[in-house]
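hey m, so remember when u said the tokens were messed up on ur end? i reran from scratch. heres the input so u can diff it against urs
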Amino acid sequence: MILIAGPCVIESEELVFDVAKRLVKFNEDNRMEFYFKSSFDKANRTSISSFRGPGLEKGCEILARVKKEFGFKILTDIHESYQAKPVAEVADVLQIPAFLCRQTDLLVAAAKTNSVVNIKKGQFLTASAMKHSVKKVLETRGVDGDGYEIAKQNGIWLTERGSTFGYGNLVVDMRNLVLMREFAPVIFDATHSVQMPSALGEKSGGDARFVPYLARAAASVGVDGFFYETHINPCEAMCDGPNMLNLDELDRVVKQTLKIQEILRG
């Protein structure tokens, strides 16, 4: 099982290291492949005054120190094509944000690196439409053909994070996990799936109470991994606090999903 966890954005080097220390046990668990996640820039914010992070250079320096000190693999977002090459020097996985999942230049730039490319499904797209984003990466990497195994062998993942449902809300259609898994490994983003975009005026809301329930449901359907943004104190987080999982709860949720997967394997 792939496990991706960490704070939404790099608020400070101190916070990142405090969270990283609490996640070491997952990296040492041979039942999972662990990736530490945090963003150097949150370009998609409701307000222009919202905190975005330390930026490319400083953010990559912090992530590189986390990688060196803890031995973690690193996943982080890129928003513009020029970021792919320098970020790939640090990150094992380049994540394409949901709103940018159709951006050809960004996908091509990410595909030209040696990093895994994790494409988050746009809230506005059907699951089947994501095969085109996968195809862009495969063709850039000189691969003829498609399908789950080909995408896996060539370092491409897809992530489900809910679909737009009315205004300011998301819903998770578990059929999407099955459909997308026909053409790539699938990660379930349990924390962004409970987000309520722009629900709190100048920032997004959410309801983290539902994270464990959705994670268990996704585990029972069958996925390749899970994505959780987590924080020591989500109420004080500078981005996505309402939908983030408290670090104290992460261990319980991970154990539950592992147990479900073990049962399904028989």
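this time it looks ok to me. The chain has a mean pLDDT of 95. if urs says something different then somethings off w ur setup not the seq
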